[in-house]
């Protein structure tokens, strides 16, 4: 992309006028542009010589295109001829090489063309290509330009560091070959071909610590993960080998997971400083962990006493095929500059081994680089030869300094190869015979680097000593094999119980406290101009509370939040349009009508209590945002972290996060979470994608008390449920199906007495006494109100309606207790508005049968491939039929 790309002629004209007044008035690179332009113009006219301008243009071409010609692929010989960078391409000839030129905005002010070209080739076309001219901010571009041109893009590496690199490379190589020999046939997803990752990560940890970074939160996939655990996290080899032996002394909590998915935390000492490095547990689903790592990092940053973004850094390690292929990558990149989700810049390392399982780049991406998607952020991207660890170190130095300085993401792509098949049992010659023929003959990086060091005069003895030490360490560890302690709960989780229980938690809040909180929620600062209708709404809310006239959902939700933050529990609420609320029921943040100012009353109440209330409108993504909030919740057991879907129907856009993390992180990795989901649900005739949050899908994921699935039908129930979530001894994900029409339903209200005492009721008995009960309707959620109305209309006084408010874990004792108040011979119906292959039916059917001693009668929509009909008329007919059937005489 050219410097003039995307600038208007008027803007250019103004800049040129400013340059003519005083060249210092415009940024350096524009100075160079205008100078070249004038050179060309004047010399052209005076002497016909436009070579000085051509030299200036050549410099620019190297900066813009050099990375395309850089020598970064270990499997392809380097091209020495670059058509766009030939002298002739700019009207220059070899005869000009000796001539001295004055140049500007370059490391030298005057030099022979030969020297200039040498510097440019060294800097931009050696083993480190850098893409940075697409960055639209001149200051950033010129900072990067200086950084690379000052040392011809080659760092000074002292001998001690060179030996450390060699040591790291050997550790990487030998770890893999040792496992290969000693644990034959076991999958380990060898790093071989990309061993430079180890000296690179070593250096990143070291440099980060020197750069004021205290913690690195890391996410990575299968490839090389065990190698990273052994050699970067320094997980004891004795433990790793015991794990490889699947030694029975390992106590597995829950169901466990394969070795290359588990998380780990370590503290490393670097130059007198301690740096915490943690690796997030992740599923096989490539890139799914990205937003989780961001959320974890953000939670830690938010709790850092000062400038958490500076001191805590996320590091994501990707495969080339996955980085180019998975939408989660783009979604996560898109989080990076947003108020509610930014983390001060993520360092991305793409291990490009030029293959994804058996698929070649020509089949896996439509872009030139595997990293092209990251250009959307306008950040620098380094492409580095995987056999040149020193070039990787140069890239890491600049990348880390850039992140700390500009607080933006940065990408290092390491181009390497994969020595074996996708895993150790895989034959790569079946599909990539030519590539693997090259790989077969390609020496490992450690050998290449050893030769470099020998050429530089390092003694072979010294290098052999390092080699022997590496081998000895592996052998000794194998002898000693011991089971390590299973990694236990993180420190901040130590006071949380692992065990679910139905123990009741008193979640009532004193009447006067609620009234006081209401005043604070509804009083707008004098200098704030709220929208007329919002002021009226707040007044009405306050009146509902003080006069105890029946509070609606939005009012009670606000009181639940207020009471929690008032008791110093922080709340994070994130989702599409969550500040206002999709259905206009929340208005957590008010917008001044005259100035660009916002006011969030809950945040003020929180601040007073030393807590936080953060409500964020998210980007339009489900997967990355839920992943982020899940990650946030894992680090903050004492907070309430809520993700809200616009409509629950869209939650399946985040299905991988729900299945792979929320439902199963406790079972797989012993990682609990109290993440809470608000999923608007209900059949209101709005069509197939605005009706169902797929209750059945969540219920299908339930086992071993792993999640709480609730469908509260009153504002008070929501109040107690949210407060219980923050106050119980244990934490479990809480999935709440929230209402839409009920937000304004006159019967869906609660009173102060309901909030003052009590607790969440997993089952709600019929609020009215039913004499001579002939039928019990069991139901959940909104249909209750329609049933109750129909009962009153039809004077069906002998029909009881019982609401199951918590579908899982089902409180069978309580349900039994309630049902025992009705005669044995009564008919039992399950009534739902969902289609028969959805809702609570399939899950509850066997459980109810067992409890009641007979099969309940099903009343609801028929099975359907689509969740709901498109026609409002048909919806109403169906709904009416359900209500009719619920009370009709049995067939
Ligand atoms: C979301 C997802 N889809 C498919 C797979 C199956 N799979 C595992 S590894 C792999 C290839 C990954 O290639 P790349 O990202 O280049 O990493 P590499 O294995 O080459 O290091 C595939 C397709 C997966 N794990 N996750």
Automatic annotation (TrEMBL):
Free-text function comment from the UniProt entry: E1 component of the 2-oxoglutarate dehydrogenase (OGDH) complex which catalyzes the decarboxylation of 2-oxoglutarate, the first step in the conversion of 2-oxoglutarate to succinyl-CoA and CO(2).
Listed GO biological process terms: tricarboxylic acid cycle
Enzyme class, spelled out: oxidoreductase
Molecular function as annotated in GO: oxoglutarate dehydrogenase (succinyl-transferring) activity; thiamine pyrophosphate binding
Record-linked Pfam families: 2-oxogl_dehyd_N, E1_dh, OxoGdeHyase_C, Transket_pyr
InterPro entries: 2-oxogl_dehyd_N, 2oxoglutarate_DH_E1, DH_E1, KGD_C_sf, ODO-1/KGD_C, THDP-binding, Transketolase-like_Pyr-bd
EC number(s) stated in the UniProt entry for this protein: 1.2.4.2
Keyword Manganese in annotation: no
The Transketolase-like pyrimidine-binding domain, residue ranges: 551-745
Family membership: Belongs to the alpha-ketoglutarate dehydrogenase family.
Example of a GO cellular component annotation carried by this entry: cytosol
Keyword check for Oxidoreductase: yes
Keyword line: Oxidoreductase, Thiamine pyrophosphate
Obligatory cofactor(s): thiamine diphosphate
Official protein name in the record: oxoglutarate dehydrogenase (succinyl-transferring)
């Amino acid at each position: 992309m050219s410097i003039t790309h995307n600038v208007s002629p008027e803007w250019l004209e103004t800049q040129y006028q400013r340059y003519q007044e005083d060249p210092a008035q415009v940024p350096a690179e524009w100075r160079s542009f205008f100078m070249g332009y004038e050179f060309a113009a004047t010399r052209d006219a005076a002497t016909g010589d436009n070579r000085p301008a051509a030299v200036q243009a050549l410099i620019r071409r190297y900066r813009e295109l050099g990375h395309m010609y850089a020598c970064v692929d270990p499997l392809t010989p380097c091209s020495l001829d670059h058509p766009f960078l030939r002298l002739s391409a700019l009207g220059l000839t070899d005869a000009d090489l000796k001539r001295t030129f004055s140049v500007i905005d370059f490391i030298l002010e005057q030099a022979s063309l030969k020297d200039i070209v040498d510097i440019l080739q060294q800097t931009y076309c050696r083993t480190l290509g850098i893409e940075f001219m697409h960055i639209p901010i001149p200051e950033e571009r010129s900072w990067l330009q200086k950084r690379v041109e000052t040392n011809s893009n080659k760092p000074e590496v002292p001998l001690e560091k060179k030996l450390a690199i060699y040591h790291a490379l050997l550790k990487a190589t030998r770890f893999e070959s040792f496992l290969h020999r000693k644990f034959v046939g076991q999958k380990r997803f060898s790093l071989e071909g990309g061993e430079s990752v180890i000296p690179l990560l070593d250096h990143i940890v070291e440099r980060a610590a020197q750069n004021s970074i205290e913690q690195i939160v890391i996410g990575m996939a299968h490839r090389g993960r065990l190698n990273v655990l052994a050699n970067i996290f320094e997980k004891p080899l004795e433990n790793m080998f015991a794990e490889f032996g699947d030694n029975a002394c390992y106590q597995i909590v829950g169901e466990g997971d394969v070795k290359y998915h588990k998380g780990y935390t370590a503290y490393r000492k670097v130059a007198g400083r301690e740096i915490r490095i943690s690796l997030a547990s992740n599923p096989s689903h490539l890139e799914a962990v990205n937003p989780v790592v961001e959320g974890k990092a953000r939670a830690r940053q938010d709790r850092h006493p000062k400038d958490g973004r500076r001191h805590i850094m996320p590091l994501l390690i990707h495969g080339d095929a996955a980085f180019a292929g998975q939408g989660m990558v783009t979604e996560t990149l898109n989080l990076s500059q947003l108020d509610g989700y930014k983390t001060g810049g993520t360092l991305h390392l793409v291990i490009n081994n030029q293959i994804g399982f058996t698929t070649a780049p020509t089949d896996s991406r439509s872009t030139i680089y595997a990293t092209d998607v990251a250009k959307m952020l306008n950040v620098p991207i380094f492409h580095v030869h995987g056999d040149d660890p020193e070039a990787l170190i140069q890239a890491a130095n600049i990348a880390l300094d850039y992140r700390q300085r500009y607080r933006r993401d940065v990408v290092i792509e390491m181009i390497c190869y994969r020595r074996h098949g996708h895993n150790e049992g895989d034959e790569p010659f079946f599909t990539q015979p030519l590539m693997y023929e090259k790989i077969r003959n390609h020496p490992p990086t450690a050998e290449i680097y050893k030769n470099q060091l020998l050429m530089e005069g390092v003694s072979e003895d010294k290098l052999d000593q390092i080699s022997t030490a590496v081998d000895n360490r592996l052998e000794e560890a194998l002898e000693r094999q011991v089971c390590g302690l299973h990694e236990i709960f993180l420190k901040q989780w130590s006071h949380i119980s692992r065990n679910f229980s139905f123990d009741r938690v008193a979640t009532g809040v004193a009447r006067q406290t609620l009234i006081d909180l209401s005043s604070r929620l509804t009083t707008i600062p004098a200098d704030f101009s709220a929208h007329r209708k919002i002021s009226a709404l707040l007044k009405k809310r306050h009146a509902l509370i003080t006069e105890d006239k029946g509070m609606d959902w939005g009012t009670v939700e606000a009181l639940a939040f207020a009471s929690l933050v008032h008791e110093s529990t922080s709340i994070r609420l994130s989702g599409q349009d969550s500040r206002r609320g999709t259905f206009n029921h929340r208005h957590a943040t008010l917008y001044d009508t005259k100035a660009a100012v916002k006011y969030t009353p809950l945040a003020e109440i929180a601040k007073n209590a030393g807590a936080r209330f953060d409500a964020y409108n998210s980007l339009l993504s489900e997967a990355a945002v839920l992943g982020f909030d899940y990650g946030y919740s894992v680090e903050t057991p004492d907070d309430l972290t809520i993700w809200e879907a616009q409509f629950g129907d869209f939650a399946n856009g985040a299905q991988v996060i729900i299945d792979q993390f929320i439902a199963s992180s406790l079972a797989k990795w012993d990682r609990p979470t109290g993440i809470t989901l608000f999923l608007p649900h209900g059949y209101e005739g709005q069509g197939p994608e605005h009706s169902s949050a797929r209750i059945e899908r969540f219920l299908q994921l339930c086992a071993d008390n792993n999640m709480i699935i609730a469908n509260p039908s009153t504002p008070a129930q929501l109040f107690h449920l949210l407060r219980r979530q923050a106050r119980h001894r244990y934490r479990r994900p809480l999935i709440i199906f929230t209402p839409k029409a009920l937000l304004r339903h006159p019967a869906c209200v609660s009173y102060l007495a309901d909030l003052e005492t009590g607790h969440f009721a997993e089952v709600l008995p019929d609020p009215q006494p039913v004499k001579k009960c002939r039928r019990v309707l069991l139901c959940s959620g909104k249909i209750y109100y329609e049933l109750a109305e129909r009962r009153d209309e039809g004077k069906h006084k002998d029909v009881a309606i019982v609401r199951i408010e918590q579908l899982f874990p089902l409180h069978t004792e309580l349900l039994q207790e309630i049902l025992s108040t009705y005669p044995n011979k009564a008919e039992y119906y399950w009534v739902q508005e969902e289609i028969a292959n959805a809702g609570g039916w399939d899950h509850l059917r066997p459980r109810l049968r067992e409890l009641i001693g007979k099969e309940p009668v099903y009343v609801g929509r028929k099975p359907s491939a689509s969740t709901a009909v498109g026609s409002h008329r048909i919806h109403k007919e169906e709904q009416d039929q359900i209500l009719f059937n619920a009370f009709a005489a049995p067939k």
